[in-house]
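pinging the channel bc i need a second pair of eyes. not urgent but kinda urgent?? the chain im working w is below, pasted from the shared doc
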Amino acid sequence: MKIKGLNNVMAALRESSVEKVFCSRNVEELTAACKAINVPCKVLPRVKIDELFGDNHQGVGAFIAEIPQMHPADILKQASRLVIVDRVQDPGNLGALIRSAAAFGAAVVMSEHETAPLSDVVAKASAGMIHHVPLARVANLTRFVEQAKAAGFWILCLDMGGKPLASLKLDGKIGLIIGNEGTGVKPILKQNADFTGRIPMAPKVESLNAAMATSIALYELERQWPHADLPT
């Protein structure tokens, strides 16, 4: 798999299996990070970097193994906060959502066939945070929600028809369901949720993108029930 962007590649060097790094100029921190773990770092002409990695690469790219993922059962054992992603198909939106999850110490579980694949675009949009967040993909999101509830999670579905988030009592282990950019959360997932909440917005604003909505909702969860691993 190819990834690009300085922050993204630096994060991958700390967390993932990086095979080779390429850059259009010598970047001291990048060279040092590669040398520390014996990863080849080669300087190439800018045009060659363009050929290998397309645009928006900041002159830095790398070949890595696939983004590591966890077994869903292990995530349920280890996490206390989940973002459950239902059919978010825009890779930039998914990457930004993963970045938001990282900021609030949440794991991310995605539908396997209807959510954007974990690509270089997703990785770059996450600003490298994709390498720090526990991730899993599942074939049946409804079944996973049932398993999460059995593991002690309360399930919160974000939907415009719900109650204002601040009016809900949101403590303990929470799984936050975020839906498709256009159609929202599948009805069967709404039915399985313990709470349905909404983000109050001005009348002229119809909706927020998935990543922005995730950030706001996770902040409200953090406000009500501070995460043990986050500084106060």
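so The mean pLDDT is 92. and The chain has nine helices and ten strands. — does that match what u expected or am i reading it wrong
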